[in-house]
Design brief:
The protein is mostly helical and about 200 residues long. It folds into two domains: about 10-95; about 120-180. It contains nine helices and no strands. The chain has helices at about 10-15, 20-25, 30-40, 45-60, 65-80, 85-90, 100-110, 120-150, 155-204. The protein is elongated.
Length: about 200
């Protein structure tokens, strides 16, 4: 029983706890640190995610370390915006890899918001790409506003710009809501797959 303290089997029961509660967890330290590492990776905090996973590895049951290393590799690949490494790590974990659309979004994120250790040139490129993207969205919103206003006698340029901003914000809000729902479903599915993986580890 002493040997099993801190094993990854408690991940599911700890997932709903806050970060503060996880940091103070002592009985299942490895599971708590693994969750904190995954959460830090979701926030693209590479340094913090790596630190948490290293602590989890130190407290982990030796036979579970290969699975934890794969989880660490997948999380760090997400945090560092490396879609190919993320796909490979997810497949080795026995979980369904991200879709082509999700990998494309991660690749795009890597261009617009490069990781913390990126060079100044890459950060400058990301800022320029973000600026271009905003201008393109505003131009699309401006065009839609002009078209919508035509049957009502048209609208001035300033009014079209303001209306275009509103249209873009509404569309972005709807897409964000849809994306969060998809992420929630994907997270639930990943938990089920993780539970099956843990069950296989325990049978071994």
């Amino acid at each position: 029983m002493q040997y099993q303290v801190g094993s990854l089997g408690a991940i599911q029961q700890l997932e709903d706890r806050t970060d503060e509660q996880l940091r103070s967890e002592s009985k299942h330290r490895a599971a708590a640190r693994a969750i904190l590492g995954a959460r830090a990776a979701e926030k693209y905090d590479v340094k913090q995610a790596r630190a948490y996973f290293n602590e989890a590895l130190a407290a982990c049951n030796p036979r579970e370390r290969p699975a934890l290393r794969q989880l660490m590799k997948a999380s760090l690949a997400q945090a560092e915006r490396k879609p190919e490494e993320l796909k490979e790590a997810m497949e080795k974990l026995g979980q369904e890899p991200p879709t082509s659309r999700q990998l494309f979004v991660l690749r795009l994120m890597g261009l617009i918001a490069p990781p913390q250790n990126a060079s100044r040139l890459m950060r400058a490129r990301g800022f320029l790409l973000l600026l271009v993207l905003v201008l393109v969205l505003l131009a699309i919103g401006f065009g839609i506003a002009k078209l919508v206003a035509l049957p009502f006698g048209g609208v001035g340029s300033l009014g079209a710009i303001l209306l275009g901003v509103v249209i873009v914000l509404v569309v972005m809000g709807v897409l964000t809501l849809i994306g969060r729902r998809r992420q929630s479903r994907a997270r639930d599915k990943a938990r089920e797959q993780q539970a099956r993986t843990q069950a296989r580890l325990q049978r071994r």
